[in-house]
Amino acid sequence: MPQISLPTVIAFLIYVTIVLGIGFYAYLRTKSATDYFLGGRQLSPTVSAISAGASDMSGWVLLGLPGYAYLAGLEAAWISIGLVLGVAANWLLMARRLRIYSALLDDAVTVPTYLQRRFADQTPWLKSIASVSILLFFLFYVGSGLIAGGKLFNEVFGFDYQIAVFVSVVLILVYTLFGGFLAVSWTDVFQGLLMLLALVCVPILVISQAGGAGEFVTQIGTQNPQLLNIFTDADGQALGLMTIISTMGWGLGYFGQPHILARFKALRSPKDTGTAAAIGVSWAALCYLLAILVGLSGIAYLSEPLVDSEKVFIALTGLIFHPLVAGILLAAILAAIMSTVDSQLLVCSASLAEDLYPLATKQQLTTEKRLQIGRIAVVVLALLATLLAMKSDSKVLDVVGYAWAGLGASLGPAILISLYWRSMTAAAALAGVAVGAAAVIIWSRLDGGVFDLYALVPGFLLSSLAILIVSKVGKSTENPVVGEQFDRMQEQL
Asked: For residues 372-408, b (16+ Cβ closer than 10 Å) or e, as one string?
């Protein structure tokens, strides 16, 4: 069991106090379901961009990605390149149009409601299948965050892994349950800045202690020169095209991540998307670059190889910083975890309260009832995700990869194409969601040959193909009034 220092405990307590304080203030500002799920659509571009980045990155940016770079070296850069391109495409292609459309469609709060109203779909199937896809894959995504939290508290405080997972989920639940979207967005900004501080401090100190960038690179090369070659793996084998496509293919997932798309819908004005996009893309590029540098710092600095590569950031902070500073930087891992899990729980609860529950009960819910159902859903979903996180040897990056692929392939093509193609139909959207989800589930269970390709890539392509084929043989069901309003709004912009 590690020795727990008082300064580290103090740093963690300060962090938790700040987050809970923000959550309480947001609770006082939350009066309606739209406030709870979208913050009243009043986010500034800076808050929207940073909270979108923080909710995207989660614990895997401080655990999973540095761990991958620690083992594979610059091969990990391909994931970062794909993700930065994905962030840019998401903001430029989706943000403004989704903000406009979701507001025009009678204030569509959730992705399933947006799809149902976009196509004036009179059946329950599109909304139901989209909601089930969100719940299914987000359970794994939330589980990955709790795995990261378990590893953090286990390593730093010596808690039993299962107890550590429960500690993580309780902290997240307290402020998400009451403060809703405002609490999530405001804490994400604070947590995102803390994450950036941690990602900057670790590689800078390691490089300075190595004697400069040149010596830093030399030390890595002494360990294994192949780790400095972006075109080879750690064994010196040339990376195949399938490997590069698989790693860069992560960027396709952004189009279908409801917790990120929620920030687009919550912008105070469509005109803010340009500013938010510039901030969001710059933020992502910097954070991913620094995360890889953390992994490379572990190669250069650590004399003994780590049993769990995903603990490289934790190991470095414990060795090179004063306990108080280390505690602040380790709190950044908790910040990364919380900034994503809170958003995902909120999206899941919104889908249950706004989509599935009214369909199942066939009732029109009051604002108070929607808030109540949403908060109950947060607790239930958190408990289910906790059960998924109980396996202590799970890899954060593996679990994130599965959930990211499932959401990106099932929802991404349907949302993206619906924003641009008037001839797309409700049946096509349903086919796209179902085919994308099924493709990821099946593909992920197969291996060897073409099945080594990351499931998101074939899932996204198959979903898009299903949408195109079904739309061509069906009849357009776009709400014509919304289409006309959208055209007028585009002219004004």
From this structure: ebbbebbeebbeebbebbeeeebbbbebbbbbbbbbb
Long-range contacts for 471-475 (Cβ within 8 Å, ≥24 apart)?
A: 471/421, 471/423, 471/424, 471/425, 471/427, 471/428, 474/425, 474/427, 474/428, 475/425
Alpha carbons 114 and 264: distance in angstroms, whole number: 13
- pLDDT bin (cut points 50, 70, 90) of residue 441 is very high
- The residue ranking higher by pLDDT, 463 or 343, is 463
User: How confident is the model over 67-111, as pLDDT tens digits?
Assistant: 999 999 999 999 999 999 999 999 999 988 888 888 888 777 788
Bridge partners (DSSP) of residue 232 are 238
Residue type, 31: K
> Of 321, 319, 322, 314, nearest to 294 (Cα)?
314
Residue 366 DSSP class: P
State the Cα–Cα distance between residues 333 and 342, nearest whole angstrom: 14
φ, ψ at 169 (rounded to 5°): -70, -35
Q: Among 425, 77, 130, 359, which Cα is nearest to 258's?
A: 130
